[in-house]
């Protein structure tokens, strides 16, 4: 369990490359199950979540090779039961369910448990699989789905109480690629990661239209083939470094980004008084810390709204932004574990039913803090960069789930950070 020591109070400057998206990579790696041919996936970030997904695929019988950012997967002969010991470590392992069911006619996957960011049910995933004709049974903490005669296309609405489901849309879309007939998903998630998965599946020979909108239509095909694909840039990693640049930057450039995917995050950072300039191609941006800053009100929403995965980091930025900011998380109303730790560093935050009311203070002070989840840990790193003194962040494995070599990237920008193996 490594620790990160952040010596606060210095500035960051320079340029870094943003990695491939963790949340696009995970379902794309799982989608390789849909074919017996070789899939080559590039820019897969070297983070523990993608490593777990690779371990799950290997345990299912896939032949997997990883060399830096490129992963080659061949699922010539695979079994249909995902091992609990691996699945329980990562909620996104649920994305093997759709591909296994479509390819093997049966899938056994552990029911994911609760999570520190809130309740994370899979009822919408199962609603979709049932609509495609799967029989579902629960036993011993596992879900068993069967469709011995194959899946059939169907129309369904996957809207939940808090909006669409990203991995639920991915799962059903993957299952429907090999179903007989046409599937229509209404109230689908429109996140860029869903579109990236659809592009991967279409390159494999699937017939998917409408991905990236609220209505996805999938015409089932008999089989899919191997393909090469490059994963989209990680918009949350980019947003996190944008927030760092806004907090303590002296001119920071982020390369390998996608302007379109960053609109809501850019708007929030600009509204709080900083400047974000993109190059003409929209794949690089330069952030200059502002002088006349103001609080902003945010509410997380499905894409193209403000992403819940950037809520904690923006909360950290706003702790030292003058004025009052009201931050609501409508997608995961309990996702405020970072606030207690930020308060230990001197932040003025009041929590009220899924809303954080942040009153900007002039300075944070370093403290030993504990990471509770992936984005909460990123928020603590940001606060540590800004704070006076040395902040020690324990349970760094949370941040290693989703940020590729974050300490090395911060060092490249001139931050004073040290990873201490414990
Ligand atoms: C690996 C990955 O890509 N993870 C992302 C994905 O998670 P994930 O796909 O698991 O999140 P969902 O989009 O499914 O969750 C959105 C909302 O729907 C609810 N819900 C979800 C499924 C379901 O069957 N029933 C139900 O009620 C959830 O509790 C939540 O309130 O999207 C989230 C929302 O953008 C992000 O925070 C996660 O980083
Ligand atoms: C919550 C996240 O991931 P996961 O859905 O895998 O827990 C995230 O990436 O912020």
Automatic annotation (TrEMBL):
The modification 2-(S-cysteinyl)pyruvic acid O-phosphothioketal is found at residue 115. The active site is at 115 (proton donor). GO terms for molecular function: UDP-N-acetylglucosamine 1-carboxyvinyltransferase activity. It is found in: Cytoplasm. UDP-N-acetyl-alpha-D-glucosamine binds at residues 91, 120-124, 309, 331. Gene3D superfamilies: Enolpyruvate transferase domain. Phosphoenolpyruvate binds at residues 22-23. Its EC number is 2.5.1.7. CDD domains: UdpNAET. Pathway: Cell wall biogenesis; peptidoglycan biosynthesis. It catalyses: phosphoenolpyruvate + UDP-N-acetyl-alpha-D-glucosamine = UDP-N-acetyl-3-O-(1-carboxyvinyl)-alpha-D-glucosamine + phosphate. InterPro entries: Enolpyruvate_Tfrase_dom, Enolpyruvate_Tfrase_sf, MurA_subfamily, RNA3'P_cycl/enolpyr_Trfase_a/b, UDP_GlcNAc_COvinyl_MurA. Pfam families: EPSP_synthase (PF00275). Keywords: Cell cycle, Cell division, Cell shape, Cell wall biogenesis/degradation, Cytoplasm, Peptidoglycan synthesis, Pyruvate, Transferase. Residues 7-410 form the Enolpyruvate transferase domain. PANTHER family: UDP-N-ACETYLGLUCOSAMINE 1-CARBOXYVINYLTRANSFERASE (PTHR43783:SF1). Cell wall formation. Adds enolpyruvyl to UDP-N-acetylglucosamine. Belongs to the EPSP synthase family. MurA subfamily. This is UDP-N-acetylglucosamine 1-carboxyvinyltransferase. It comes from Luteolibacter algae.
């Amino acid at each position: 369990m490594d620790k990160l020591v952040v010596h606060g109070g210095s500035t960051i400057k320079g340029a870094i490359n943003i990695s491939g998206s963790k949340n696009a990579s995970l379902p794309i790696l799982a989608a390789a199950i849909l074919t017996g041919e070789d899939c080559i996936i590039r820019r897969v970030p070297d983070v523990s979540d993608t490593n777990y997904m690779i371990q799950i695929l290997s345990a299912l019988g896939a032949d997997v090779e990883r060399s830096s950012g490129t992963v080659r997967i061949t699922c010539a002969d695979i079994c249909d039961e995902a091992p609990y010991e691996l699945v329980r470590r990562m909620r996104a392992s649920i994305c093997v369910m759709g591909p296994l069911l479509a390819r093997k006619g049966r899938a056994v996957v552990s029911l994911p448990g609760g999570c520190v960011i809130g309740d994370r049910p899979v009822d919408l995933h199962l609603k979709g699989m049932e609509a495609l004709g799967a029989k579902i049974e629960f036993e011993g903490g596992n879900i068993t789905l069967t469709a011995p005669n194959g899946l059939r296309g169907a129309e369904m609405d996957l809207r939940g109480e808090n909006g669409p489901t990203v991995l639920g849309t991915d799962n059903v879309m993957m299952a429907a690629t090999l179903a007989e007939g046409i599937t229509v998903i209404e109230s689908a998630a429109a996140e860029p990661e869903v579109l990236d998965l659809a592009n991967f599946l279409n390159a494999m020979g699937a017939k998917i239209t409408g991905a990236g909108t609220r209505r996805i239509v999938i015409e089932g095909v008999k089989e899919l083939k191997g393909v090469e694909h490059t994963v989209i840039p990680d918009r949350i990693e980019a947003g996190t470094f944008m927030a760092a640049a806004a907090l303590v930057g002296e001119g920071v450039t982020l390369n390998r980004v996608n302007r379109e995917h960053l609109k809501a995050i850019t708007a929030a950072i600009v509204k709080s008084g900083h400047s974000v300039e993109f190059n003409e191609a929209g794949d690089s941006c330069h952030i200059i810390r502002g002088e006349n800053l103001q609080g902003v009100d945010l509410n997380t929403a499905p894409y193209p709204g403000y992403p819940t995965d950037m809520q904690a980091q923006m909360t950290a930025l706003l702790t030292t932004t003058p004025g009052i900011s009201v931050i609501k998380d409508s997608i995961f109303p309990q996702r405020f574990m970072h606030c207690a730790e930020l308060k230990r560093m001197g932040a003025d935050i009041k929590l009220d039913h899924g809303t954080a009311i942040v009153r900007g203070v002039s300075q944070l002070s370093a403290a030993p803090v504990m990471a509770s989840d992936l984005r909460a840990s990123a928020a603590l790193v940001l606060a540590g960069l800004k704070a006076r003194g040395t902040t020690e962040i324990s349970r760094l494995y949370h941040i290693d789930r989703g940020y590729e070599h974050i300490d090395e990237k911060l060092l490249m920008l001139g931050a004073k950070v040290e990873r201490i193996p414990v």
